[in-house]
Design a protein that fits this description.
Structural class of chain A: alpha/beta
Number of domains of chain A: 2
Strand order of the largest sheet of chain A: 5-2-1-6-7-8
Oligomer: homodimer
Strand content of chain A: 5-15%
Order of helices and strands of chain A: EHEEEHEHEHHEHHEHHEEHHHHEHHEEEH
Shape of chain A: elongated
CATH architecture of the largest domain in chain A: 3-Layer(aba) Sandwich
Number of helices of chain A: 16
Largest interface: A-B, 147 and 147 residues
Radius of gyration of chain A: 26 Å
Helix content of chain A: 25-40%
Chain lengths: ~400, ~400
């Protein structure tokens, strides 16, 4: 079966997370991704825990299905290979500090001149413009500065980091969007373009509600723990064996919830009769709800609330999520095919389900450092030969 | 200037956040988005706070630049308009519960048969397959069930919701990626496809490190507050006037940090000499660092640490982020053009910076409910007329 990006070649200079997350998605959609790594060391994440038989499970998941070649972009021989790859490529991706590609002689202007159809995707901490373009950034630095930490954590408590590396990941997702847009655009213009994603920009872009509140009211919102800031009851609650969510967004759902909890009088209590009143008495209401929910398991309460039509769900830890029947049914927990003799890992599946895209039941393996050098050089020679042959009969695009 | 998606027409049935966030991005890239709303009420978020002159700042930001038409998809006259729109459209988007479109007579099979080039993008809580496809979901339900809450919060404390609605937003971003992929694919196949995004799937897809840890070690990771779980010092610290981040990821950076803090002996102290030792004594090290940082402002420490080459940055609240010079320089805080007589709002800019895409300095306004009905009908008639004229001379695709 043909996949949407089957004919594409991506040369990927990125390392760690933001860029590799983007090329992972493009690879999941069918693109051939050639990961260009530093000789000897390769991507830093090859040394990131957790390890199994000496190999990183982190690297294995993010770099599934990619090819690897080790190239020293300062050495003439390797530069020649790199340039031959660029001549065949649709996309080149990098996450160096701004200016590094120019120093290497591979800045956008030069690349666009030499390879006009090549799309150039860059992701950096602060972007390729503005007063702080040259500063390095880490996931946590942009989570902190972009504002998401200030609205995450216990009410009245200190700021908390989002447990997933959304500083990197959201930037990677915007880079994917930019590259896909450029591919579509190239179909009509015939020309590549440059995409410049800043991790900090991407953090602000996902704040939605908080930006509206801060800009309209003039007051910055703070963290509200597990509860929704302006709907009650809409939070986590304790059952006998763990946390679960109750999301009763209006008066009718609140009445159903009171029935489900065997607390029918609560729905008529003036302290709880409107959402505004419930928000005012949120702590008291939580105690009353938990006086019931602590007496039985969360499975009991979820089944009961669902029967009464109240939106609910478990708070799962990651091990539980990896066994969630709905996620398993959607192929969202996949084995990563081991390399011969290598360890087996598990990774998240591709959440982009579409007709015309093969639905994987296993991910292809991640590459050992430089493992595909011979294959890549062989393929490159064949592609160049074919192109010479074609150019005898066909005008070049 | 032409924008990448300038020629595209998107018919958008989605409401609240996940779908509208996706069509917002496509609109920012140039697509014409026609928002089809329920007569009388429209998108629920028109009633979401914060308000200014009776209008929602939340709705204004997410629906910038879209057109609005109110259609009752059960009324014959409005269905006829809807079908004429579909005949012109490149993409239709919806976030109903699975099966609703089929009940309306607009399921994928029917649409694909009638409009073979039409791309169909769906986003729902649990996806269009699996045992729980029909259950409703909210952002918080999928944040809870997907695992991100279990790794967010204070160490040893209860799970905490991510302050941004990443349950919706990440799903919307995957929908955008699917639609862009389908547009590219259609250039060669001539056919549309169906994209089926589940909010729950999308949550698992962004957990990266946590999935690797849980699956390799068998133990689910827990929350670690503001600190990195396996690098020290890599956390927030208190200055005299607020929190800032220190991200000293290796021994050399730790030595520089000790110098910057005037605590040079710390770098040789056996309790802190390796990252492993620092992780073991993380609480003590935090007290020692803060014994210095509490004595001056975060501006002082950030300037000093930057001079010593230690990655650092402010923890900003959302109001501070909206005044961040780097974000302002990148056009990431933009006025939303008011409708005549309407209130002015502010929204986050488009983080996808690319050559070939106009860089906005203001967003276009969001629509009043049904405001574009007359214009849309006029345009529709003209488009149909032009098509009939074309079909006299040109074979239909």
């Amino acid at each position: 079966m043909a996949n949407p990006l089957d004919t594409l070649l991506i040369i990927d200079l990125t390392h760690v997370l933001a860029g590799p997350f983007a090329s992972m998605t493009l690879g999941d959609l069918g693109a051939r991704v050639i990961k260009v790594e530093r000789p000897g060391i390769g991507d830093d994440t090859r040394a990131f825990p957790p390890f199994k038989e000496g190999e990183s499970g982190y690297f294995a998941a993010i770099n599934r299905g990619k090819n690897s070649i080790a190239l020293d972009l300062k050495a003439p021989g390797d530069r020649a290979i790199f340039e031959r790859l660029l001549a065949q490529a649709d996309v080149v991706m990098e996450n160096y500090r701004p200016g590094v590609m120019e120093t290497l002689g591979y800045g956008w202007d030069e690349l666009h001149e030499r390879y006009p159809r090549l799309i150039y995707g860059a992701v950096s901490g602060f972007g390729h413009s503005g007063p702080e373009a040259l500063k390095p950034a880490y996931d946590m630095v942009v989570q902190a500065r972009g504002g998401v930490m200030s609205i995450t954590g216990e009410e009245g408590g200190p700021p908390v980091r989002v447990g997933a590396s959304i500083g990197d990941i959201v930037a990677g997702m915007y880079l994917t969007q930019g590259i896909l847009t450029a591919l579509y655009q190239r179909e009509s213009t015939g020309l590549g373009c440059k995409i410049d994603i800043a991790m900090l920009d991407a953090q602000l872009a996902i704040l939605e509600h908080a930006v509206a509140i801060a800009s309209v009211t003039g007051a910055a919102p703070g963290p509200t723990g597990a509860r929704h800031p302006s709907i009650t009851p809409f939070s986590t609650y304790r059952a006998a064996d763990g946390f679960f969510v109750i999301a009763a967004g209006n008066d009718a759902l609140f009445a159903k919830l009171c029935d489900a909890l065997d607390l029918p009088d609560l729905a008529k209590d003036l302290r709880f009769v409107t959402n505004a009143a419930r928000c005012e008495n949120v702590a008291l209401l939580k105690r009353l709800i938990e006086s019931q929910t602590l007496n039985a398991s969360r499975a009991h309460w979820i089944a009961r609330l669902e029967r009464f039509g109240v939106p609910t769900g478990k708070v799962q830890n990651v091990s539980e999520a990896l066994e969630d029947p709905q996620l398993l049914a959607r192929n969202m927990v996949l084995p990563i095919t081991p390399r011969p003799g290598g360890p087996a890992f598990v990774g998240a599946g591709n959440p982009i389900k579409m007709t015309g895209l093969e639905e994987r039941v296993a991910h292809p393996s991640s590459p050992a450092l430089d493992q595909d050098r011979a294959t890549i050089l062989e393929w490159l020679a064949a592609a160049e030969k074919q192109q010479t042959a074609k150019s005898d009969t066909l005008p070049k695009k």
